[in-house]
Model the fold of this input.
Amino acid sequence: MKKQAGIYRITIARGDLPPKNYIGQSIFMNQRIRVHLRDLRGGKHYNIHFQRAFDKYGEHAVTFSPIIVCEPKKEILQMYEQAVVDSMDPDLIFNIRLECVVSNLGIPASEEQKTKVSAAITGPKDHSIRESASRPPKPGKELQKDARDALP
Done:
């Protein structure tokens, strides 16, 4: 399959409601869509609104289409993605970031995100792994007296 860089759209038909889109960019669009579908099928897509729509309307309501094929350069991809997002009705896109589409700057973290990060940084430490992973002494080396006394 040919490697194509560009901007893509994933559309979810929502019955009587207007379809809603997710706009993305990738240097390899075919691979990126497979990752989106894998995450959606597994119920683990990072965009919760997109995930809920997928769960509600089903995979049969999803279509994928490339919008722009371009050079695989970060600046070009960002420029085109921003232009596409700007041209769309914000109520009809799933994208969380409507401005500065590739940066988290200026997007406040939710309390849930803050709690997860805090727990990851300050959470309880399990030192039992380190203790059980200690290696036995090398053969031929004599143990020091205090180490011999500590043996069972």
Q: What stands out?
A: The helical segments are 29-41, 48-57, 74-87, 111-122, 128-132, 145-150. The first strand starts at residue 5 and ends at 14.
